[in-house]
Design a protein that fits this description.
Number of strands of chain A: 2
Shape of chain A: elongated
Distance between the termini of chain A: 24 Å
Largest interface: A-B, 55 and 54 residues
Radius of gyration of chain A: 23 Å
Subcellular location (chains A, B): Cell membrane
Oligomer: homodimer
Strand order of the largest sheet of chain A: 1-2
Subunit structure (chains A, B): Homodimer and heterodimers.
Largest sheet of chain A: 2 strands, antiparallel
Number of helices of chain A: 5
Helix content of chain A: over 70%
Membrane topology (chains A, B): Multi-pass membrane protein
Pfam families (chains A, B): CASP_dom
Keywords (chains A, B): Cell membrane, Membrane, Transmembrane, Transmembrane helix
Strand content of chain A: 5-15%
Low-confidence stretches of chain A: 1-13
Number of domains of chain A: 1
CATH architecture of chain A: Up-down Bundle
Order of helices and strands of chain A: HHEEHHH
Chain lengths: ~190, ~190
């Protein structure tokens, strides 16, 4: 009986051709989704990082200028998007390895762990930026914060747009984690 | 040869006693971590939801009062924490089922999917609230937003404190997803 179990363990490591095919498709989906997410974060960090607006009037002492560095939340947004983008590009190698060797499990768990952490990082950055953008648009009567978007209209439009790429990447990262979990269960 | 494979597949479904023991430990960890995360979100939503401060002076028209509802981000924070807390309590049933039946895979994938979504929701709420709290504390010279914490000191201290529970829950949720992935891979 003991002998059979050991033998069974050996054989079960070679998955059936059908499940291997499904795992290859899942790995391919994973690879493509990683590219999409990487492009999303890249677009976001470029859009936020390059946005600046100078108002067409100056006082004697002040030149009215808005860049992302004025608010630490936006700096965090650019850094977090760059980190996640870099990670996703590097993870493409491992994802490509999974297409070839679709039964790999340990490296998939490794990816799930990092994907989850990166998703948390990106979600934190994107929602913090979104909260600030919301205040910039609407202001806050309770806190007496003035909506700066009334002056810096084009600045506000661009930073609002730059959030889109991040939120698409977050959704794609959720899908990546789900697909990887399914692939792990199907080996 | 074909016969052997089928037989192997049958046997491999019954995991070895050793791996079953490890899976039981993982399931138990999962159960305990869910309780911790649920308590964290509960504490956060109660702390944020019950905070109010009225300043000791009034003008003829205005009574200076701060509640969480003044800022939509804080309302989102309370709602998201309540949703995640409710989900975690419900998921305890399934987590308990995994302690008894530690080889279950499909229900674990089900949990990973919802855990990931809930983690994203909680991270979004907590970091949006943190971004607003940061502005409330430090203000923003660029945007000309005044730090309201200088007046509403006790309100600010309590809402800052209420973030802690959420961030602990986020870390615990990341650990839960990792533990579940490992458990799925070990069946």
């Amino acid at each position: 009986m003991k002998g059979t179990t050991v033998e069974a363990g050996e054989v079960s490591k070679q998955s059936t051709p059908g499940s291997r095919g499904v795992n290859k498709v899942l790995s391919l989906m994973d690879f493509i989704m990683r590219i999409i997410a990487a492009l999303g974060t890249l677009a976001s960090s470029i859009a936020m990082g390059t946005t600046r607006q100078t108002l067409p009037f100056v006082t004697r002492f002040v030149r009215f200028k808005a860049v992302y560095k004025d608010l630490p939340t936006f700096t965090f947004f650019v850094i977090a998007n760059s980190i996640v983008c870099g990670y996703l590009v590097i993870s493409l190698c491992l994802s490509f390895f999974h297409i070839i060797k679709s039964a790999a499990v340990r490296s998939r768990i490794f990816l799930v762990i990092f994907d989850t952490v990166m998703m948390a990082l990106l979600t934190a950055a994107a929602s913090a930026a979104a909260a600030i953008v919301a205040v910039a648009h609407n202001g806050s009567t309770g806190a007496n914060w003035f909506p700066i978007c009334q002056q810096y209209r084009s600045f506000c439009e661009r930073i609002s747009g730059s959030l889109i790429g991040s939120f698409i990447s977050i959704i794609v990262l959720v899908l990546i984690i789900i697909v990887t979990s399914v692939a792990i269960s199907r080996r």
